[in-house]
Write a structure and sequence with these properties.
The protein is of the alpha+beta class. It has 1 helix and 8 strands. The strands form 3 sheets. It has a 4-stranded mixed β-sheet with strand order 2-1-6-5.
């Protein structure tokens, strides 16, 4: 699983920005994103493979940033069970937290 896109939203209701790289701080989220350091502390993730499947089913394409998710990976199913670890590239690991 490799990162294919990264987006951050600097504030509430502001458009997401595509960035080439982002710093992820443990327990805080992505630097530059509106949730960085807040009680939410989350990084949202989606799979381009699953987005492509949705495009095929719905017959309408869109940019992956339109979903407002932070990280888009190239392939795979994104786990949603709390406590599941997801390895993205090397050495990033993302934990699925309860309530996320």
């Amino acid at each position: 699983m490799k990162v294919s896109a990264i987006h951050v939203a600097p504030g509430r209701r502001l458009p997401v920005k595509s960035v080439d790289a982002a710093v992820a701080e443990e327990g805080k989220g992505l630097v530059g994103d509106r949730y960085h350091g807040t009680k939410h502390r989350h990084v949202t993730i989606q799979s381009q493979e699953q987005l492509d499947e949705a495009v095929r089913r719905l017959g309408h394409g869109f940019d992956c940033g339109a979903t407002r998710r932070n990280v888009t990976v190239d392939t795979g199913k994104i786990p949603t069970k709390p406590g599941t670890r997801l390895r993205v590239g090397d050495p990033v690991e993302i934990d699925a937290e309860p309530g996320s």
